[in-house]
Amino acid sequence: MLERLSWKRLLLELLLACLPALIVGLLVGGLPWWLLLAVLAVLGWHFANLLRLSHWLWIDRSITPPTGRGSWEPLFYGLYQMQARNRRRRRELGHLIKRFRSGAESLPDALVLTTEEGTIFWCNGLAQQLLGLRWPEDNGQNILNLLRYPEFTLYLRQRDFSRPLTLVLNSHRHLEFRVMPYSEGQWLLVARDVTQMHQLEGARRNFFANVSHELRTPLTVLQGYLEMMSDAVLEGPSRNKALHTMQEQTRRMDALVKQLLTLSRIEAAPALDLQEKVDVPLMLRLLQREAETLSQGRHEIHFSADPQLRVFGNDEQLRSAISNLVYNAVNHTPDGTRITVSWQKTSHGAQFKVCDNGPGIAAEHIPRLTERFYRVDKARSRQTGGSGLGLAIVKHALSHHHARLEITSQPGKETCFCFSLPARLIVNNELAQNAVH
């Protein structure tokens, strides 16, 4: 280990340089000139080493410093060590910045680093996607020039960041902005996409509004008849009509509550293991009798099922899906309609289909049919007791069986509701059994 440079070492070097000059001056005379010559030689040696150091620092810039002698050896070595430490620190800082940027890129939020004046000096990829920023083109730009929204401008200028700002962008995205100090004179702006949260909140409000509306109608009818009975004694046909209407409205509320509970249970159900064997042909034989009883001869109903086609799944959920599709065909088609129900094996799996030759469904309604409480004809749905929840139940039950409902309709010709369970869920398929087990 080299010793560090000290004034004692410099003084020793000067004495060693002057000692020969002192001896020569005493022997031959002219001592001051010999001492002056020795001092000039020492200064010249130091000047030469200074030039070598300057050349190494600013021109050569190689990693290895020039070799030094005497007092310059620890100086060169010390500078080399300091340079090595700086290189290590730069590498560590580079790795730290890379880790920070990698972590920032993996966050589900848009991040923008700005000065207090709003000048951007870094942003992650999600900020480019959500906020429309470009990197590195927007480096040095003021964020207020890129996000031109009065609410956002006011939010930054007021500098009250105790509460987040929710902003609807021109792209119809709902973003929640938060600003926090990052370092001295710098801000960290965080933007989170809360569009789905707003949609879910809107769906929740609509759901409760629809439930309230659906329950209010029969309750109003019941309340009206009860008030009539309390004011006057109803007898004969009037009394029978009142009792029949109240019973009908009670059944309607009971059916609505049952469907709400069914939908809630299916939505909250965990992922199914699909180990239960479901005898769909037996289920369809029972449904055929129920459908014919419900129709009372008003429809021409035909069932066609492969008697050996059984599947793995959840019996309750598949029964809910299939029965809702069959009951909808009976309840929402006019008298004289031909309804065909089929359960057959296809190249894609086990296919269930309900078709009718009724009036059909307009194309604009089909994408929304599985929404809760959505009705094509609200007046007719209420007359037939429909709640608008049947197809929502079907949708969620099928999603648990890796299937989806497909709806096709040609008004005045044919309307079909169809779904296909994957081939691996067919009971008699050996490959399916091995996959399931």
From TrEMBL:
Keywords: ATP-binding, Cell membrane, Kinase, Membrane, Nucleotide-binding, Phosphate transport, Phosphoprotein, Transferase, Transmembrane, Transmembrane helix, Transport, Two-component regulatory system. It comes from the Bacteria. Residues 210-425 form the Histidine kinase domain. Gene3D superfamilies: 1.10.287.130, Histidine kinase-like ATPase, C-terminal domain, PAS domain. GO terms for molecular function: protein histidine kinase activity. InterPro entries: BphY/WalK/GraS-like, HATPase_C_sf, HATPase_dom, His_kinase_dom, HisK_dim/P_dom, HisK_dim/P_sf, PAS, PAS-like_dom_sf. It is found in: Cell membrane. The keyword Phosphoprotein applies. The chain crosses the membrane at residues 10-27. Residues 96-172 form the PAS domain. Member of the two-component regulatory system PhoR/PhoB involved in the phosphate regulon genes expression. PhoR may function as a membrane-associated protein kinase that phosphorylates PhoB in response to environmental signals. This is Phosphate regulon sensor protein PhoR.
